[in-house]
Amino acid sequence: MKIGILTSGGDCPGLNAVIRGAVLKGGRAYDSEFVGIRNGWRGLVQGEFMKLDRHSVRGLSRQGGTILGSSRTNPFEGENAGPENIQKTMDAEGIDAIIAIGGEGTLTAARRLTDAGIKIVGVPKTIDNDLAATDYSFGFNTAVEIATEAIDRLRTTADSHGRCMIVEVMGRHVGWIALHSGMAGGAHAILIPEQPQTIEQICAWVESVRDRGRAPVLVVSEGFLLAEMGEAHSHKGLDAFNRPRLGGISELIAPMVEERTGIEARATVLGHTQRGGAPSAYDRVLATRLGMAAVDAVVEGKWGSMVSLKGTDINTVSIADATMDLNRVTQARYDEAAVLFG
């Protein structure tokens, strides 16, 4: 069997470990052949391929980014796109099935292509940890570690100047990175999309910290909404799947806090630093296990499935179930953290 592998959407620590796990398991256990599809769905649409073998994946588990490249291409739009054209491209290359590694947008496209007859197995990739049907996705742990280190560093400069530091992390419409890094970094408030807050409440937390002689440090997820906002702040346009590119909410909140409290406030947007660099040990192991399990699912013909982490076990679930809803921070998890605010 000849299996194509693609990485699509935003890059993420651990992508290369998935590729390595799949190629090594497939070659040893099933004598499968692999081909790399360059630049995500765009490479599948345009027929951009590279050889993948044991030699080409050597040492990949510790390497960040993706050797295949990535893009935010919609496989249903443009010349040579759509399931019929994609199947012709696969047939011409002799590709029997595809392992699609990606997040919400990638897997939604994979589900639609599977419904149209393309043989695909998905692997969940997102630092946001926003995919339902899996407890954790690889890349999340690394992003939290990076954000936590940044919070630790910003705390020292906040203390030195008596400033309020507002640290903005990624997460789109869920607050898992903010929740975990905020708790780990000892943030005085954690602002997430699932829990809109008024600016008055935020300032009350800030003033409480100041009154105790401390410099306030707040962590805010990019998708956070103030209570009066109808939608998340976005000024960067739309991506290929017509979703708003989020970012910049901390830069709106900081001057509001400074004006209302008299405390000098600074915003720091961590941005793509959370996605870069080498994956953590946890993400290397999880990504490798998911890559190996994806090959098993391909050999077993589980088209339209996604490999998933439940507890400490890897199993398969329907891509439809994984993309039907977001994995949101529960009220109980937020209440647990909120005891520490202020």
TrEMBL record:
Main location: cytoplasm
InterPro entries cross-referenced by the UniProt entry: ATP_PFK, ATP_PFK_prok-type, Phosphofructokinase_CS, Phosphofructokinase_dom, Phosphofructokinase_III, PKF_sf
Molecular function, one GO term: identical protein binding
Name of the protein described by the UniProt record: ATP-dependent 6-phosphofructokinase
Binding-site residues for substrate, renumbered to this chain: 126-128, 163, 170-172, 222, 266, 272-275
HAMAP family: Phosphofructokinase_III
Keywords: ATP-binding, Cytoplasm, Glycolysis, Kinase, Magnesium, Metal-binding, Nucleotide-binding, Transferase
Phosphofructokinase domain ranges (all copies): 2-298
Gene Ontology CC terms: 6-phosphofructokinase complex
Locations listed in the record: Cytoplasm
Annotated Pfam families: PFK
Function text: Catalyzes the phosphorylation of D-fructose 6-phosphate to fructose 1,6-bisphosphate by ATP, the first committing step of glycolysis.
Protein family according to the UniProt entry: Belongs to the phosphofructokinase type A (PFKA) family. Mixed-substrate PFK group III subfamily.
